[in-house]
Amino acid sequence: MLLRAGPDRFLSFPREQHPIVLQIGGSNLNNLSKAAALANSYNYDAINLNCGCPSGKVAGHGCFGARLMLNPKFVAEAMSAIAENCDAPVSVKCRIGVDDHDSYSELCDFVYKVASGSPTRHFIVHARKALLNGISPAANRKIPPLKYEYFFGLLRDFPSLQFTMNGGVTCINEVNAARQCGAHGVMVGRAAYNK
């Protein structure tokens, strides 16, 4: 979309919105590189790769979003390509697993392979797995159980990386509690604008 429609329509923003992060998605290294290069001149504070969306349009035949978690080697290559084409720090937004690939060891394998194979040092982790078959994206925000223990395990097991918690956070007290337990950040999405 970004490469077809022209950058200004999607990338320009008022200066007072800083700090601001651009999230991109895709499964084509060349296109991800081009998108990062286009975004670079707009001075985003960070570039994020979407490895968490469970939508059939994204993770289905498009083969990106949450489906990328099944291919950490590709994600590492993608993050390297993105980082080579922009000056901003890069990060990955992901789930704790996908379908039956939802053990803590598989999550650790994903994080390890992406971090060791690319400049990625920050992961935004939605603390529930993605179910790609049979339920809607909306149901994916409610049905798979939250497993915050996976998130806090990553903090313990990867002390040189940064992790932002996402999923199920609805109030400032929950944000503060997560921060006190070591979360580097807390992402509040729909709860912020549904109030």
TrEMBL record:
Transmembrane segments: none annotated. GO terms for molecular function: flavin adenine dinucleotide binding; tRNA binding; tRNA dihydrouridine synthase activity. The keyword RNA-binding applies. Residues 11-194 form the DUS-like FMN-binding domain. InterPro entries: Aldolase_TIM, DUS-like_FMN-bd, DusA, tRNA_hU_synthase_CS. Signal peptide: none annotated. It holds the Pfam family Dus. Keywords: Flavoprotein, FMN, NADP, Oxidoreductase, RNA-binding, tRNA processing, tRNA-binding. Coiled coil: none annotated. The keyword DNA damage does not apply. It comes from the Eukaryota. SUPFAM superfamilies: FMN-linked oxidoreductases. Its cofactor is FMN. PANTHER family: FMN-LINKED OXIDOREDUCTASES SUPERFAMILY PROTEIN. This is DUS-like FMN-binding domain-containing protein. It comes from Stephania cephalantha. The lineage of its organism: Eukaryota, Viridiplantae, Streptophyta, Embryophyta, Tracheophyta.
